[in-house]
Design goal:
This protein has 2 domains: 47 residues, no CATH class; 74 residues, no CATH class. The radius of gyration is 16 Å and the shape is globular. The chain has a 5-stranded mixed β-sheet. A hairpin with a 4-residue loop joins β2 and β3. The chain contains 4 helices and 5 strands; from the N terminus they run ααααβββββ. By secondary structure, the chain is an alpha/beta fold.
């Protein structure tokens, strides 16, 4: 595991220039949210809570559906539904996006509690 962490460190420590900017991924999702905490502990990286939320959502819903990157939201499923993942204060200006929200217990309309996706796996 230490080698994997070293690869991450090398990948993010260099400044991308020219065409390498196009090849550099905008986001990297790990298979398991617990790996974020291992990397944080080993290398001292600060892990954003949003990355953990998005990884959890991707892993849970991704076990049942194909998910894709979208310009309008965080994810789009194979049927074209859009999902934005965030904290309880997260809002969207578009009515066709489902908000997958952390730190809430009950959903309403297109606001879905993030924890509910844990039952899909």
């Amino acid at each position: 595991m230490r080698e994997v962490i070293d690869y991450f460190e090398k990948a993010f420590s260099k400044k991308a220039k020219g065409f390498s900017l196009l090849r550099k991924p905008q986001k990297i999702y790990l298979e398991n949210t617990n790996l974020f905490y291992l990397i944080e502990q080993e290398k001292g990286f600060t892990i954003e809570k949003g990355s953990i939320r998005e990884t959890f959502f991707l892993n849970q819903l991704g076990s049942l559906k194909k998910l894709y990157y979208s310009d309008k939201a965080d994810f789009m499923d194979s049927e074209g539904r859009l999902f934005e993942v965030g904290g309880k204060k997260k809002k969207t200006s578009s009515g066709d996006i489902f908000l997958v929200v952390d730190d809430i217990i009950v959903g309403f309309r297109k606001r879905i509690p993030l924890w509910l996706f844990g039952f899909l796996y």
